[in-house]
Amino acid sequence: MEQKTDNDHLPTKLALRMFAVDAILSRGESTVRLLDCFAGSGVLWRLMRREYGKRISLVGIDKAWKSSARYLGDNRRYLRLLPLDEYNLIDLDAYGVPYEQMDIISRRHFKGTVVGTFIQCAYGGLPFAMLNELGYPRRMVERVTKLFYRGGWRKWSAYLRLLGHEEVHVYHCANKHYFLCLGKQDMAQSDSRLTGMVSRQGNGDVVHADHL
Question: For the chain, what is the largest distance between any 2 Cα atoms, rounded to a whole number of angstroms?
Fold first, then answer.
């Protein structure tokens, strides 16, 4: 998976994160305890903090040393080592497919909310391990690779369901898909604000928001 995506659909990303933060706070949590796994320059959450102030407590991870990162290095390593129960929100704003991160989070039984980005480039593949979990053996995939790489988002959404995410919101922006997996405690706070919304961002790309 490549490095963090640019913030080219910033209003869309902010909308999902505001929805996540509101859901967490509305169930009585005094603070959103965030683990930002692709912290980058911290633009998104710096803007969020202008709105929510000290109600957002942020810990960032990035491969490059930047002002928003507390931990330097591979986020997969930290996801395996950090006490995830200290957080109620994990941000996976990746450029690519954050399969390994979601796999680690799931295996460690994280019960909070996850917000992230799924991007499949024109010639991009999908992780063999994920396809195998969905019932496509690697030998079969290698024989007709292009066939099994089609419909990347549909396969990713099937994988999220496999992990047990019963309620997921998503904005589709061409080949970029911004998703929000609500934690079980936060699902009760969700409403129809994201469902069925259609807006236009940037260069006229249509942005759809739907449940899976």
Answer: 53
145: helix, coil or strand?
A: helix
- CB neighbourhood size of 163 (10 A): 14
Burial 92-116 (b: 16+ CB within 10 A, else e): bbbbbbbbbbbbbbbeeebebbbbb
Nearest to 11 by CA among 42, 57, 43, 56: 43
Each residue's pLDDT tens digit, 39-90: 988 999 999 999 999 999 999 999 887 667 889 999 999 999 999 999 999 9
pLDDT on residue 36: 97
Contact 167, 150 (CB under 8 A): no
SS3 199: strand
- What contacts 142, CB < 8 A, 6 or more positions away? none
How far apart are the C-alpha atoms of 187 and 150, rounded to whole Å?
30
| Cα gap 186→152, rounded to integer Å | 27
Joined together, the tokens standing for residue 12 give 């869309």
Q: What percent of the chain has pLDDT over 70?
A: 81
The pLDDT of residue 200 is above 50:
no
Q: Rounded to an integer, what distance in angstroms lies between the CA atom of residue 80 and that of residue 118?
A: 21
Token pair recorded at residue 147: 């066939």
User: Model pTM?
Assistant: 0.86
**From the CB of residue 72, how many other CB atoms can be counted at a distance below 10 Å?**
13
Strands lying side by side in the sheet with 32-36? 71-72, 56-62, 32-36, 89-92, 113-119, 176-181, 168-173, 205-211, 198-201
Statement: residue 198 has pLDDT above 60: no
